[in-house]
Batch of 3 targets.
Target 1
Amino acid sequence: MADWIALTARAGRAAHDLVGWLMWDPEAIAAYEALGVPNGMGWIQAWRLAPLGDVTPAAAAASTYSIRPQIVELIFSAWRGTTDPDNIIAVRDAAIESGLATIAPGLKDTLAPLANDLWRGIDTVHHGARPLFAANRARTRPDDSQPLLSAWLAGNCLRELRGDNHWLLCAAADLDDAEVGLLHSAMVDISEYGDEEWIARSRGADDEAIAYGWRRLESKGLASNNGLNDEGRRFRYDLERRTDELTAPAWQAVGEATTRAFCEAVEPHHAAFVARIDETAGPRWMPAVRHRPTNAYT
């Protein structure tokens, strides 16, 4: 019998690899800029938020959670009046196959056949309080002539489901956006990031927000002296486990064989995906695809 929590965690890591490179893809950014967006500003989140349609920046910021609302406001201001969500999504979709062919040659042969099974699992999930997942699922899907794009979109949809589930748990724990970023430092190699504040600052938290975040975490017993304590690290690892628990039913609906096949298709290309991010964005970006220290807090 499958350990569905472990298998869901594995699939989640594979989905991060499959999707994360797109945030800094030069081809996509150039096409986004060609829509009239100065310097392609904000592509890193514009393509993720576009499936929500013409929502307010405040609503979009609520769905991305750990990114400061002011950053989301800037992203929306860059494209509004110049283009629209459908055009942004078209740019995203046009970049997928060529990007994957460059980064992960051969992935198409193993990933594309999984599309229908992935969507079948996705269609079993209820939409409640899962805005990015629901928005992506509602989009028109590619036909059988584009199986790789279809499989990528399904993997992205499952990744957004995991993200929505994670934010549900963060909200239930009364974590603000800076706290979320500070806590995530428990999941990475701090020697690579330099300190526990880098991730929160990369998402727009300033000195005031960081200081307030530490005070809030300390009031909850999760930090001491502007740093995570053992209880904070234990809490963050447990948050990860509970996220996988919430997401596991979707992968169970996909089926064990297809879930394993998804992981086995993507995992051999992990180093290539990380190298692509290092090349286009720089080291440390997309912490979800990088080394995670062993959980010593169970």
Note: Residues 204 and 238 are 25 Å apart (CA to CA).
Target 2
Amino acid sequence: MKKFFAIVSVLCLIFALCACGAQGGEKGESLVFTTGGDTGTYYAYGSVLAQFVSSKSDVNVTAVAGNGSQANVEDLKSGAVQLGFCQSDVMSYAYNGTNIFEESGAVKDFSVAAALYMEQVQIVTMNKDIKTVADLKGKTVSIGAPGSGVYFNAIDVLGAYDLTVDDIKPVYQSFGDSAESLKDGKIDAAFIVSGAPTNAITDLSTTGQVYLVGIDDEHIDALIEKSPYYTKNTVAAELYGMPEDVQTVAVGAVVLVRNDVSEDAVYKFVSSIFENSAEIQHGKAEELNIEFASSITDVPYHPGAAKYFAEKGFEPTTK
């Protein structure tokens, strides 16, 4: 008889645990959020947002390091992750099957959760004699991984000055490796596309004077005319201890989400961020703006995100 009751007790315990697990599953979804390298803004900000949303809702978000915009889109496509940071230009390439996605074809497995902040094209150097993009001719310059978003940003900016990769000595490095190479004098400059201040540049500035190469109005206007996803932007001098503010261009940092994530989970992800933005412990949270967040027009928004923005008086693109 004791053996019988023991078996019944075990079975009841198993049933209870299963029931709790089922209830836990009903309470919310678990989402993996791919960000960027651990010296960039994607990783730092994405980790903060993941923890914040998890604490403010029943959606459990886990941030993981990523390999940049293109890789993040590919991870979304494969189903390895449910959320991912992406540059707005790379997002458009993927959705329309152009540039780095021309050979593999358009990716339609994702939609937009929100645009969060601007990512500046930061051309970093420790050589005070490199003052314009034209001065990069003949220099050793890091332009990001081949086929990456940074690579195409570099190509675009160089092109505005009638330069190509053949006019420089290109190397293909991550943000952290670029900073190390600059510090060691192995390269002359590096393209780093990330929200300023960027950890890799901030850390570099503690070892010596850093400069950002500016882009003048004439070349910015030509660049935007050809590639309208860029906008004029200014990096403040105090961010890296520079002699003066520097004018450059920027693209948007967008959170993408797989289409098969539930409307409820995406609604909670977006609303948790924007309803409690003052509590988010990261400098980029100061740039959160609902109008900007809902402003993407060339890729549709997820229904959960669209629902939240509609409640706030904005009607983002959904088709």
Note: Confidence is low (pLDDT under 50) at residues 1-26.
Target 3
Amino acid sequence: MQKVLTTTQMAYCDKATIDGGIASVELMRRVAQGVFDGRVWQGSVAIICGKGNNGGDGLALACIMIDNGIYPYVYLCSDKSKDGRYYYDILQAKGYDKIYSIGECNYDFDIIVDCIFGTGFKGTPKQEYAYIIDKINASSAYKISVDIPSGLDGDNGRYSTCVKADETITVQYAKTGLYLNDGKDMTGKLSIVDVGIGLHTHYVNAVEVQDVALLFPKRKFNTHKGTFGKSGILGGCGNYLGAVKLANMGLCALRSGGGLNVILTPQSQANNILGAVVESTVIGLPDEGGYLTFDKSELDIALRGMDCLAIGMGMGSRYSENAEIIEYIINNYPIKVIIDADGLNSLALNVEALKCAKADIILTPHVKEMSRLCKKSVDEILDNPIDIAKAFAKEYKVTLLLKGASSVITDGEEVYIITNGGAELSKGGSGDTLSGVMLGMLSQGMPTIESAYSSAYLTAKVAKDLVEEYSEYGVLPSDVARAILLITKR
């Protein structure tokens, strides 16, 4: 897994490395060397330097370029940092005369290197810096940001004014803000330069393909359908049967590893489901007007032998009735349970029910659903998605998959980020497909945290692969569901 740090964690590691005997100016030189070595420098180059150590990286880069016969224009936004002045003095000692105030910059270059703000920047840039950032963005130059696009929050990926980089070369470890919220849109191509900063703190895990491949060992020959678990999908109502069909479509639960699947849906709608399934069993439960009603005895019969259950897809907006069903299941059945969609909105009526649960639970909210669950505003969650998700998971003893540009998954202890998602998944029904895949992972005995991050990664990968055929506009959740049949080969 790729190690991803918050800005506070990164600052701690940086300080520990300096305290261990590597001077700050030497780290600047290593950063600059890594940036220089990372590409072929052709055409005119401008390096725009702020006052902090990020600006010092830019001045160090100028020194290295000059030593290699490349003569950049250096623009200073303000006074130098103490360590930045070290490289400024070297430039002065060389008699280098292409150093200017930022007010003299016309932004007409082939390459602009952004060294204005580092990862410690928070809030809104002052007007003079916002003007510089806007001029950089308006330029036709290829834009390289060192460590982070200036103006981007290094923890949460939000911004008011920010450099939109074509390429970001970050130092030692990726920062969470490069992946969350708008981070991926502003970062461009991301690469990481190793400068010898040690890892002295906890970190977030970015899931990679090899991490997921480990979860799919070759199966033994001497197995049967019961070996890989019995899973159930509980949901649907008169107006929203498509959600259940998507979760089951292409046999998501079965293709991703499960052995036997049952669909539990309103009795009056069961025939409308039957035409969409072949391998799965459909059980009709008591309903009223096409919406599920709570019936303990019928639920007990339907759940007999169940190993895991996904609840909520297309369940409808009768939240009180849905909540009664959900609370009964999680409080009485020690099985693995995914709660999604309408199930989450129903659970939000009494989220404290989670504290009494016997079930091992995965919640899969998007930000608005998370807002209802944790009683925090959407902005509060977007400002601090990792800490809020982690605190909620810890308090309620659940695994939480917070959906977003990069989904955050946590059990309250470890945190994982799924970085390979894209706009192709921003369609109604993608979450239903994801729940079906996750259900298949759970049914074969995979732990909840691994089921959550592996299914999220693989669903995103399948969708990304389909972009080549359909474009990010044209990929449908049903396309992803059908393509899941190849999921364990990816």
Note: The longest strand covers residues 260-266.
